[in-house]
What we know:
single chain; mainly alpha
Amino acid sequence: MTAQPSEYHRRVAAQKRTSIIEAATKLFLDSGYDGTSLARIAEAAGVSRATLFKQFATKAALFEAIVTEYWKVDSEEEPLPEPGNLRAGLETIGRRYAALLTQPGMAALFRIVIAEVPRFPELGEAQFKLGKMPYFESVRRYLAAENAAGAARLDDPEMAATQFLGMISNYVFWPRMLLARWEPDDSAITNAVDQAVLTMLARYGAPGAHRV
């Protein structure tokens, strides 16, 4: 019978995993995906090669873990809003999305993918399938639920989700890819989310959807 790891060992393993992901992200950005070896990542993370290989057998597996980590949303701590109040639900989702896009490292992750995808298309696929699409699908499901509850009137939840997330990311995130000093403050980000919510309410809200 195999003994279960103690809380201490689980905590140490989680700390090492975080160190590996942070070191790999920085090295991928500085030296490129192809120019970074697992050995260099282990050294930068301050862990042994055996420890790194135990958690990530390949560089591709490590990159997938980075994507999953940055796009992670704890569904238990942050469940989708209950349908019935479209304005409140969109405000909640919009603020979460803005926080997700502005977290440290997210811009770096996109830069890695954009720089390397011509030679390593699997990086783009990982970013799309493991990161963006699961999150997008959760927003699409929410809008479909609002439609079923009668709080929204929309024929295409997928297009509505694209429009809502696009309005937010177009201000909060994408300028960072070109403008090194693009750092809107909290009030500007909140305003961008609020304006996106109002636009969605005007386009898709059923009578009563504008209530606070």
